[in-house]
Amino acid sequence: MVTCFRECRHCHLFPGGRFFSADSTTTSIATTRGFGMSFGNAKKETKHEIPRQAVYRLSVYLRCLNRLRANGIQTVSSEAIAIVAGVKSTQLRKDLTYFGQFGTRGLGYDVSQLSQMISNVLGTEKLQPVIMVGVGNLGLALLSYRGFEQEGFEIIAAFDIEPDRQRNKKIKQRILSMTEIGAFIKEHQVKMAILCIPAEAAQETGNLLIQHGVIGILNFAPIVLQVPDSIIVNNVNLAIELENLSYFIQDSPPSE
Question: What is the β-pairing status of strands 109-110 and 128-133?
Fold first, then answer.
C-alpha cells in the first residue's frame, strides 16, 4: 500500500523554519551522471547552470525527503515539501525543473526516486573523500562528528603543523604533517577540504590546496580567500551569524 504525505503543516516530523542561503552565483552541475534508473517522464539534460541558491535549497529538500523515507512515507506533494523546507511550492517546482520534469499530477513525487535524483545531482550518491586542515578545538570537534558520512562525505585524514601534539579527544582519522598534504591529495583524489586554521595562515594554505588539486573549500577561517573563478569556497563565520541574529533581536520585548 502506498502511503501519501500531503498535509505537512499538521505533522510533527519536521521542524519549521525559513531557509536562507549565501549568494546567487551559479554552480555548474552535470545532471546525467550515474542516473541508472527511470524517474517517470524525466527529461535528461546534458548540463545546466543551476543558481547557487537553488543548490542550497536542493540540499534542504534532500534532508526533508530523507526524513520522510525514514518514517515510511512513500509519496509526497510539492506543497508538503515546500512547507517543510520553508519555501513556496512554485519555487520548489522551479528548482526541480533544473534537472528534469517528473512527478505525477495529482499524486505528487515518489520519495525514494526524488531523493535519489537529488543525490545524483549533488554528487552525494557515494561517499566523497574530504580532508581537514587544522586540528584545534573546532577541527577536532568536526572530526568527531559522525553525521558527515550519513550525508555522503567522509573526512579521511587531517593535517596540522603539529600532528603529534596530544589532543583531548580520540578520533579515528590520522593526523598528518602539512608536508604530506600534496602527495595525499593526489593519491586519494581529494577534491574537497575543510579549513579550520587562523586567518593569517588561511590564504597560503588555500593556495597550497588548490595547487594540489582541491577545487572545493569549506572555510572556517575569518578571512575571505582570494581564489580563481574555477574554485568554489563556502565561508562559515560564526561571529557574522551571531551579529545577524543580534540585529534581528534588538527590538524584541524583554522577557518577563
Answer: unpaired
Domains, the chain, in order of start with CATH, read: 4-122 (1.10.10.10), 128-241 (3.40.50.720)
Cβ partners under 8 Å of residue 101, min gap 6: 41, 42, 43
pTM for the structure as a whole: 0.66
Q: Are 239 and 255 in contact (CB under 8 A)?
A: no
In the 8-state DSSP scheme, what is residue 75? E
Tell me how far apart the alpha carbons of residues 194 and 133 are, in angstroms, rounded to a whole number: 6
Among 178, 119, 174, residue whose Cα is nearest residue 151: 119
* pLDDT score of 93: 87
Backbone φ and ψ of 13, nearest 5°: -70, -30
DSSP one-letter string for 132-198:
EE--SHHHHHHHH--HHHHTTEEEEEEEESSTTS--SS--SSEEEEGGGHHHHHHHHT--EEEE-S-
Is the pLDDT at 180 greater than 60? The verdict is: yes
User: For 252, phi and psi rounded to 5 degrees?
Assistant: -75, 140
Rounded to an integer, what distance in angstroms lies between the CA atom of residue 135 and that of residue 161?
9
How far does CA 14 lie from the centroid of its chain? 19
* Block residue for cell numbers 550518491: 125
